[in-house]
């Protein structure tokens, strides 16, 4: 299991605390420092069963600068979104846990973290 985190994020710290309390075996990826490639983002999206706009933090300054709210949310624009997420990793929703069963989830709640632990 791997968890993508921003250490400054309270949801990330909460997820790590729960994983530790449960004795989970996991690795931490500080994705702002170890930026995911476009292919890694595609892989995580496939594992999540989501589209890039579903995991984009549209209130971030970079999102506003790029005008993301105006970008089309359709298959033809998918690569453009993925490129933006890789170029501006702060736009990626967090934390994301990639589970051992090949799935992934956005673990913003304790329930989601527990779900990941059960996979």
UniProtKB/TrEMBL annotation:
One of its GO terms (molecular function) is arsenate reductase (glutaredoxin) activity. PROSITE patterns: ARSC (PS51353). Pfam families: ArsC. InterPro entries: Arsenate_reductase, Arsenate_reductase-like, Thioredoxin-like_sf. Keywords: Oxidoreductase. CDD domains: ArsC_ArsC. It comes from the Bacteria. Belongs to the ArsC family. This is Arsenate reductase family protein. It comes from Streptomyces cadmiisoli.
């Amino acid at each position: 299991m791997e968890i993508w985190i921003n250490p400054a994020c309270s949801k990330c710290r909460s997820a790590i605390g729960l994983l530790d309390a449960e004795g989970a075996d996991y690795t931490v990826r500080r994705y702002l420092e170890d930026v995911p490639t476009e292919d890694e983002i595609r892989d995580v999206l496939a594992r999540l069963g989501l589209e890039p706009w579903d995991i984009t933090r549209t209130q971030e300054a970079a999102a506003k600068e790029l005008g993301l709210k105006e970008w089309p949310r359709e298959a033809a624009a998918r690569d453009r979104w993925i490129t933006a997420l890789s170029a501006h990793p702060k736009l990626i929703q967090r934390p994301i846990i990639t589970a051992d069963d090949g799935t992934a989830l956005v673990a913003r709640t304790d329930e989601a973290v527990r779900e990941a632990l059960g996979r």
